[in-house]
Specification:
The protein is 70% helix and 0% strand. The chain is mainly alpha-helical and 134 residues long. It has 2 domains: 59 residues, no CATH class; 58 residues, no CATH class. α4 runs parallel beside α6 and α6 runs antiparallel to α7.
C-alpha cells in the first residue's frame, strides 16, 4: 500500500499536471483515490473525487469500491453505507466485489444481521457468490 507521504506526493503530481494543462485520466484518478483509501486518508480521497467531478468526470464503481474498502478497513461501516447509498443513487451497479467489501466490513464489527441482508440482496440481484463471499 502507498504510504501517506507518497499519497500527498501523488496528489501534488496531479496538481502539477493540471497546472500544465494535462487532463488527468480516469485511471489516474482511480489510482490516487485507491492510494488515499489504502493509506486510510479518506478526507484526501473524497477531495480527489470532488475534484474529479468538478472536472466533469464521473466517479466509477472502482472509485466507490475503493471508498467502501477504505471506510470498512477503518471499521466505519456507517460511512461505508452512506457511500454505498450514494453509489446506488448515482445509478452505479454494485458488483460482487462491492458486496464482499460490505460483508467484510460489517462482519468485522459484528453486524451479522446486516451481513445476512447483504447476502439476500446479492441473491435477489442474481449475483453469483464467490469464494471471497464465503
Amino acid at each position: 500500500p502507498m504510504a501517506a507521504g507518497k499519497m500527498t506526493e501523488a496528489q501534488n503530481v496531479l496538481k502539477r499536471l493540471m497546472q500544465k494543462g494535462v487532463a488527468p485520466t480516469t485511471v489516474l484518478y482511480n489510482t490516487i483515490v485507491d492510494g488515499c483509501c489504502r493509506a486510510e486518508n479518506m478526507e484526501a480521497a473524497l477531495l480527489v473525487v470532488e475534484e474529479m467531478e468538478a472536472n466533469d468526470m464521473k466517479a466509477s464503481r472502482i472509485i466507490y469500491n475503493a471508498l467502501l474498502n477504505g471506510y470498512c478497513k477503518m471499521q466505519k461501516v456507517t460511512s461505508a453505507e452512506k457511500v454505498f447509498t450514494e453509489m446506488m443513487q448515482k445509478g452505479l451497479m454494485a458488483d460482487v466485489v462491492t458486496y464482499n467489501i460490505l460483508l467484510d466490513g460489517h462482519g468485522k464489527v459484528g453486524q451479522y444481521k446486516r451481513c445476512f441482508e447483504i447476502l439476500e440482496e446479492m441473491k435477489a440481484k442474481g449475483l453469483k457468490l464467490n469464494a471471497v463471499t464465503y
